[in-house]
């Protein structure tokens, strides 16, 4: 659901730096001209700039702008619009891509039976006694009737502890297929690469949407499936259950993946430089205090946390003293 997922780290960092520079009332008088040149060099620069603006607008009422900064920012926004109108086709392409992917999910979440915002974990007991935990940035519908109990996961992740009902099967639909619980506790994460299933108790039947391929996933196993195939099963990940308790578990987890998880639990943007994204991480980190989690990571790894803006944070290689 994160619209920055397909943008390069370098473009996002450049866009954030341009944002800071354009707000500076004492900045370079030619900054606007240089920024427009950068913006027109690549459609990805335009998409990265719009992402920075979308994030910044969420925080505008909470920040104290220096004298002149508001004027500079408003000027840069007017200039953004003019430049994007001139650039035309490339801009329309990147906006169209975002509109067709991230935007429908955001809007769709507004009408869901259950939905969560950034940093929010919601737990509830359904009418049949099933206990569900909905992870941050997730949305789900509940469709129970006399024949079946059906959850429709629109996006995000849910942990489910099913109640027994011998008359009605318990089903979970994602865009990639259907899951049928066989007396279970399991988590379902709908990602861009497919649906991730982790079974912690009982068994779950997987049926793909297009090919109708079927497989039963046993206790202690996980599987990833798309609309046509079910990939090889491996051991279930405790990380996919621990978040319901406000804990992020890392067992040799790549830093980039861990930062992606943390990003769901804090406002603004949290990015990871590809140069350090491969670093393995071990340990337990608090999801409700991501700043503390970042301090723990900074103390344990050769990384540095840079705060370009209060709401724009980047994790990169540790700077060496000259």
Task: Write up what this structure looks like.
The protein has 322 residues and is an alpha+beta fold. Helices cover 33% and strands 33% of the residues. The protein is built from eight helices and 16 strands. It has helices at residues 9-23, 31-40, 43-59, 69-87, 89-110, 239-242, 255-262, 290-300; strands spanning 114-115, 122-125, 131-134, 139-144, 149-161, 170-174, 177-191, 194-208, 214-217, 221-225, 234-235, 247-254, 269-272, 280-286, 303-309, 312-317. Helix 1 (9-23) crosses helix 3, helix 2 runs parallel beside helix 4 and helix 3 packs parallel to helix 5. The longest helix is centred in the N-terminal third of the chain and has 22 residues, at 89-110.
Task: Give me some keywords for this one.
322 residues, 11-stranded mixed β-sheet, single chain, 33% strand, 3-stranded mixed β-sheet, elongated, alpha+beta
Weakly predicted, low-confidence segments: 61-104
Broad structural category: alpha+beta
- Multimerization state: single chain
Instruction: Kindly estimate the percentage of residues that lie in beta strands according to DSSP.
Output: 25-35%
What about the largest sheet?
A: 11 strands, mixed
Order of H and E elements: HHHHHEEEEEEEEEEEHEHEEHEE
> Quick one: how many beta strands?
16
Q: Count of helices?
A: 8
The overall average pLDDT, rounded, is 82
The Rg value, from CA coordinates, equals 22 Å
Share of helical residues? 25-40%
Q: Can you tell me the overall shape?
A: elongated
Q: State the distance separating the first and last CA atoms.
A: 41 Å
């Amino acid at each position: 659901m994160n619209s920055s997922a397909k943008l390069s780290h370098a473009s996002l960092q450049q866009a954030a730096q341009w944002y800071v520079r354009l707000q500076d009332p004492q900045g370079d008088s030619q900054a606007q001209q240089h920024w427009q040149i950068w913006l027109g060099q690549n459609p990805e620069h335009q998409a990265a700039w719009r992402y920075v603006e979308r994030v910044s607008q969420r925080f505008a009422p909470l920040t104290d702008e220096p004298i002149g900064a508001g004027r500079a920012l408003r000027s840069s926004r007017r200039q953004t619009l003019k430049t994007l109108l001139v650039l035309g086709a490339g801009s329309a392409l990147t906006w169209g891509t975002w509109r067709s992917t991230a935007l429908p999910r955001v809007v769709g979440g507004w009408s869901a039976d259950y939905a969560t915002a950034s940093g929010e974990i919601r737990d509830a007991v359904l009418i049949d006694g099933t206990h569900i935990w909905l992870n941050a940035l997730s949305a789900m519908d509940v469709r129970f009737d006399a024949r079946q109990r059906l959850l429709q996961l629109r996006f995000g992740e849910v942990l489910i502890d099913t109640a027994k009902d011998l008359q009605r099967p318990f089903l979970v639909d994602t865009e990639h297929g259907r899951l049928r619980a066989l007396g279970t506790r399991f988590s379902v994460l709908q990602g861009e690469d497919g649906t991730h299933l982790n079974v912690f108790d009982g068994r779950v039947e997987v049926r793909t949407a297009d090919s109708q391929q079927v497989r039963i996933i046993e206790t202690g196993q996980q599987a990833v499936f798309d609309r046509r195939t079910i990939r090889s099963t491996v051991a279930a990940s405790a990380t996919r259950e621990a978040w319901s308790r406000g804990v992020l578990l890392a067992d040799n987890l790549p830093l980039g993946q861990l930062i992606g998880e943390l990003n769901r639990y804090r406002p603004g943007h949290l990015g990871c430089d590809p140069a350090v994204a491969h670093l393995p991480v071990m340990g337990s980190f608090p999801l409700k205090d991501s700043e503390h989690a970042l301090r723990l990571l900074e103390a344990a790894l050769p990384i540095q946390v840079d705060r370009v803006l209060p709401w724009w944070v980047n994790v990169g290689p540790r700077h060496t003293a000259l």
